[in-house]
Design brief:
single chain, mainly alpha, 0% strand
């Protein structure tokens, strides 16, 4: 059984587990399935906006696909949320990626 199948099996038992959905999205990115990854990241962030790690990966996905407007939007949302929860590390990573894109 591959990693995607294992994660999906775990999601059957706990379909709203943000950690598992985030992990599955990362696996989809490795396969080049950005659309499936995007759907999962957005689902996680709509349900649990303080899951700050997903903002970075979602914004990077948009950036790779040259949708810079959406990438900037998700970096900004992520920085705002990282500030709220006091995650300085995530804030720094999001800010660096944001500045690299916008400067």
């Amino acid at each position: 059984m591959n990693r995607i199948d294992k994660i999906k099996e775990l999601l059957v038992q706990n379909p709203t587990d943000s950690f598992l959905q985030h992990a599955l999205a990362l696996e989809y990115i490795k396969l080049g399935d950005d659309e499936s990854a995007k759907v999962l990241f957005i689902e996680v962030l709509n349900r649990e906006p303080n899951y700050v790690g997903s903002y970075y990966h979602l914004a990077k996905l948009y950036e790779r696909n040259e949708d810079f407007e959406q990438a900037v939007l998700w970096y900004e949302k992520g920085m705002e949320e990282a500030k709220k929860v006091g995650d300085n590390h995530a804030f720094g990573e999001l800010r660096a990626a944001y500045e690299e894109l916008t400067m």
